[in-house]
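Predict structure. Chain length: 214.
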Amino acid sequence: MTDTQVREKTPVDFWFDPLCPWAWMTSRWMLEVEKVRDVEVRWHVMSLAVLNENKLDELPETYRELLGPKGWAPVRVVIAAQQKHGDEVTGKLYTALGTRIHNEEKGPTREVIAEALAEVGLPAELLAYADSDEYDEVLRASHNNGIDRVGQEVGTPVISVPGAEGDVAFFGPVVTPTPRGEAAARLWDGTLLVASTPGFYEIKRTRTQGPSFE
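Prediction complete.
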């Protein structure tokens, strides 16, 4: 593939926290879209811990626990890997982490992070950043870049796609199970359609089922 062909692909910016099962579903959809449309996903980290740090008292105890050291660990390792080894490792490491955390139901353990690093050929030493705030400023900047585009009353994932007057960011789409093939293409086409509509903000309905990692 030539540099010209790469530039012709439609860029899609995608913000994720490895903890979020709904972001995981959407990210797998975007990988399907890459197969059927000329798009290129650019992966960025955001953090549910950062998103909720000023409202922890309002959250259930189990969720507060998840947003503690256990929740910081995966995203800190991803941002450290990105800073040390380049943007191209971000999506690969996310896939290795998410497969274990969600599909294999192992959760965001240190063992899972170590396995994911090994799978994508990254140094085991990166695991030390799970407990380090060295790159927290970069992490927060990446998080804020996504949130500033879409607004405060959202979570993860955030995607930014071409719209009528420049890029438009949305929370979602939230979908289960992951659309494949032509179904993935139709959802993508619809996303571009609403993004091209000036003044469009939201379509929403109550979720009646949880994520299905098929």
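Summary: The longest helix spans residues 69-85.
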